[in-house]
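Structure ticket #2291
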Amino acid sequence: MEILLLILFLITAGLAGYILWEQMSLKKKYGQFLDGAEAKKVEDMIKSYSGDVDKALSQLDELAGFAAKLHKTQQFAISKVGLVRFNPFGDTGGDHSFSLAILDHMNNGIVISAVHARSGTRVYAKDIIEGKSSHNLSKEEAKALEEASNQKSK
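Resolution: structure written out below.
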């Protein structure tokens, strides 16, 4: 019976020592955090931090609203471009003519073509709605539209 009590005492003493060591460790950590601050100062610090957190949450809500508006606006911004340079006359001149497709996220936009010749440059614009034009497209315009349509929106 005495041996059992001795073992129980040693276990209890060991646990007490472990708890004391943990308490001192925590006290050291909190001592560094509080840096000798009084209880009133700690309470004031917590209130101040709480106010700062509330302010940050309010700003976060404001930023979330701004991001949603920006995302909605971005859907209609230019996000896809396709360019094809070409020589409309084959063996004479150079690749001074071009077709340029400019599209938004929903594949709406325009195709602009400029055909350069000695006598001048003619510019044409055709509207694009959901990746299709109500006007006939030249092969260069169709290629520029395909290039733009196949791009992933950024």
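Closing remark: The chain has three helices and five strands.
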